[in-house]
Design goal:
By secondary structure, the chain is of the alpha/beta class. It has two domains: about 200 residues, inorganic pyrophosphatase (n-terminal core), CATH 3.90.1640.10; about 120 residues, Diaminopimelate Epimerase, Chain A, domain 1. The chain contains 13 helices and 13 strands. The chain has a seven-stranded parallel beta sheet. The protein has a six-stranded mixed beta sheet with strand order 8-9-10-11-13-12. The relative contact order is 0.11.
Length: about 325
Amino acid sequence: MGVDWEPLERIIAENERFVLSCHVRPDADAVGSELALAELLESRGKSVRIVNPSALPANLLFLDPDRRILTVGEGSSVDQACDADVHFVLDTSAWAQLGKIGTVLKRTSALKVVIDHHVVADDVGTISFQDKTAEATGAMIFRAAEHFGWPITESMANFLFCAIATDTGWFRFPSVSGDTLRICATLIDLGAKPASLYQELYEQSSLARLKLAGRVLSRMTVECNGRLAYICVYQQDFAETGAVPADTEDLVNECLRVAGTEAAFILVETPNRDVKISLRSRNDLNVAQIAKRFGGGGHKQAAGAVVSGPLCDVLAKVLTTMKAELKCQS
């Protein structure tokens, strides 16, 4: 499914002040896409600010050494975030994932533009550039730049490579195509450094994170004759290991390493006792539709939501739903 980028060129040409935002708990696709688009806009002589609903996790701070990414309530007020001609929302089109940026979008008079590749799509933007077949929002930014003939710098190449590589599970997800690899080859030619990016992303774990992973994975439970696996993380786990919530990133994927597993989920208890749900599948099970029932969204094989606790109640609901979708009783 291609995207008609022509309206984007008019939007950029006719406006001067831009604010870029993404979803809560930003990942590398969201952040890399924001930083790359910011540079592209600035190369066109535009004024750009990046304002997100929540702070960057520690493992992504290396992408923003100058700390240009602001947070609503910490570096930018709602009124300041409203001060723009155009407000871009990247890597989400779900109100539930916007946090405090949702307040900004409801108040701002700026033109609202969405660039996203997720399945769940609310009416967030006045104009939406959406491609549900795209492997990452970063890939969409690359294709837009390529369409318009806009040069990609070395720093932008690293941002976009990081965005694409992480959102494709380092090129192992079904969304990867020959075009994906051709894009990344071009980004490497332009200066992207996969080895350095991989080291920053995956080889900087704290001892606390590894202790948390060992503790949580030791409690992994399987259901449905081994077709479903899940793990839960409690606030007590963070307190006793010294780990932080960002240390749970990608832990759910460990469940899919169990032979015979078709689907998995992780529940993470937050300080206010809400529960973060992350769902995965490697068959035809559409976890984005399951996440939507809980107020979230995502991809067919990777999705999530945040719901009110307690965790034991959420576990019962998610487990019942997943077992029903997998059509199993045991």
